[in-house]
């Protein structure tokens, strides 16, 4: 195994370790490298909370609210556990005993454990997951804008045989070409701050609106949806916690690394409660009328329109940020890490074309969560941890890691199959 000796002539070798002289911020900010507990929790929130939460009310409708909450909190626990597996694995590899230089990313960890094939697998999964997130963003934006402007007939042909949803998606395309031409995350930072502020405000208004609608309508609710929708709910929940690739950069910039596990646990717990409240309140408000995009359940009015536009603005400006890891991988592998505008534009075109083929927002969340995010978030961390610690911990490592791997593979295969069936099946 690669971690038993220092890489030398390999072109994938990790950079040499410098003695605490790295003045560059790992990824998320331009402030000093070491972050306080509060800043770390804030970065955890930014890294994890995304579009996936918008599909939770519909998922709760399918699974039942009790079953949905149980699956959501279970996935949150396993996500936290697997994040810490990555942290412990990196610490072990970077220890003096293992003799490894600084490991900065998930891909570096894959190389340290399994060589070029490990990095290749991680890179491939990151590209699929990040591109999948961005596909869901385009689906949400085009569906929401079409719903707002066409009196709920977003799939009715409007111009040249194209539906409003398709027209809005292509209207976004030239602007996304411009945003994705920006070469660095530094230049995108102001857009990120603006988008996060709009996102928090919009989702808060949605939750308040849900409470008033529930108190007025009090629709019939279902607690358990049956085993047939188990994999669907798991996939959507896994997608909601989309920050596994950020845990190593987050730990790198934390001031008190010994307490990072506690800080991460607090952040995950708070996010889980927020996700649970958002999903449950959305389902409680609209019951069986809950749609795949919860904002399309909101009534007409200025506040409702502002909320929907605000969420669209957030995802519109988040798109290039989420695509950045994709560009890092494809430019490193195809262009020697050199900036390539045409390659970036080609990737944006492919993502946009894929968004046209997906009919349902929540079903696509479940597909990406079941297929890619399960492997990236559960299977790979457990495999890497077991490969590094199996000789030291023996069965105490092999059994729990093996159970996570088996669980992840079962969810990936079954959930992917179920989600594909849901996508291709005609909706009533």
Automatic annotation (TrEMBL):
Residue span, Amino acid transporter transmembrane domain: 36-421
Keywords noted in UniProt: Amino-acid transport, Membrane, Transmembrane, Transmembrane helix, Transport
Membrane topology: Multi-pass membrane protein
Stretch forming the signal peptide: none
Biased composition (Polar residues): 1-13
A single MF term (Gene Ontology): neutral L-amino acid transmembrane transporter activity
Spans annotated as Disordered: 1-31
InterPro entries: AA_transpt_TM
Domain of life from the UniProt record: Eukaryota
GO cellular component: vacuolar membrane
Localization annotation: Membrane
Annotated transmembrane regions: 41-60, 66-87, 124-147, 167-186, 227-248, 260-286, 298-321, 341-358, 364-386, 398-420
Name of the featured protein: Amino acid transporter transmembrane domain-containing protein
Native species: Lupinus luteus
